[in-house]
Amino acid sequence: MSKQVVIVGGGAGGLELATTLGHKFKNTASVDVLLIDKSPYHIWKPLFHEVATGSLDVDMDGVDYRAHAANHHFEFQLGELRDLDREGKSIKVNPIQSDNGEELVPAREVAYDILVLGIGSITNDFSTPGVKEHCLTIDTTRQAESFHKKILNEFLKIKASSENKPLRINIIGAGATGVELSAELFKLTDLIKTYGFTKISRHSIEVNLIEASGRILQALPERISDSAEKVLAKLGVNVHINTQVEEVLANGVAIKDGAKISSDINVWCAGVKVSDNFASLGGLQTNRINQFDVKPSLQSVTDDHIFAIGDCASLKQDNGQFVPPRAQSAHQMADTAAVNIANLINDKPLQSFKYKDKGSLVSFADYTSIGFLSSMAHKQVFVEGWVARNLYVSLYRLHQAALHGYIKMLLLMLVGRINRRLRPRMKLH
């Protein structure tokens, strides 16, 4: 009887793991690999802000899970995780419905021998009043596309209006997503006037980047924060540090001392957590932000037949720090999980995961990039400008190589260059 490896979540880690295991067991009839995701296509999460502003088109740049599965020797099923039955070794999946609510596939159970949770994370609203009612988020490609449509609709209003009133956008949270989104919005104003929106300019938007801590990009070295703030100021972003949002309103945010920062659109980009829907999934041990506690082998501390990787996994390192929720963490975890799942199946010893911080890069659209690399001597090498921009792009290319191999990655890079000549520089609908 074959063993069923079920991976829930096709993000950076989950899809790379399914691809690796698909090839590893393609000639092994006793092992089947199944990937389940609630979306039919994959977009690398660090690029969601580009989907939100139209720089990236999911229809052109996304990876179709079904096609990818067929090419890489695993099975894909569309579905959203609802519950976990550890005793029966099965997961429960929500029904699939059409856009008008018609049930296409009923709720179902999927059996597993080994389960991998790669369900990612969402933004953490910290129970702030008004976030759910009055804030947009870009946790998924669907949400990013909704944001893009709203921005285009607002620009249509500006185009048709006789007033010269700017579109006010509050971005709450000055981590990498908030900072990169701020820059992408100004790139959008630079590009869209090429396509008939002649009234639109950088003065057509007013971007407020609101951060509760003492500096932007709090998780990165202070030198990068300082450089990033100068870039944003040059673009025209209003940066508000040490500014705690008390409540989100329909027309802005209320901060301490009764002050208010007015807006037409609020976007929440502060903090991360795993969805509350999974806070007690199958009785697995989780932390305060619902991440699954795992051993160094990436197995759940509660159940050796369940692994967790990427943003949804909580692993304390030897230095006392936890593995950060980054794309490079998911990539590295996928590599270790692939080895350990094969070893578990073959009754071999499991490896311990060792996170290697290779640095961080922040992109300011096409204007510049800033970041640092970790050297062999564990020193931080600061990079910016053209060098940093090319390194930032190379991270995505490495992700493509992990999915498709280097030859196809090079072909995709070539197609991308051709498309930039043939297609509009931004999605216009």
TrEMBL record:
Keywords: FAD, Flavoprotein, Oxidoreductase
SUPFAM superfamilies: FAD/NAD(P)-binding domain (SSF51905)
Coiled coil segments of this chain: none
Biological process per Gene Ontology, one example term: aerobic electron transport chain
Start and end residues of each FAD/NAD(P)-binding domain: 3-334
InterPro entries attached to this UniProt entry: FAD/NAD-bd_sf (IPR036188), FAD/NAD-binding_dom (IPR023753), NADH-Q_oxidoreductase (IPR051169)
Aminoacyl-tRNA synthetase as UniProt keyword: no
Highest taxon above the source species: Bacteria
GO molecular function: NAD(P)H dehydrogenase (quinone) activity
Cofactor: FAD
Keyword Cytoplasm recorded: no
Similarity comment text for this entry: Belongs to the NADH dehydrogenase family.
Protein name as annotated: NADH dehydrogenase
Organism field: Agaribacter marinus
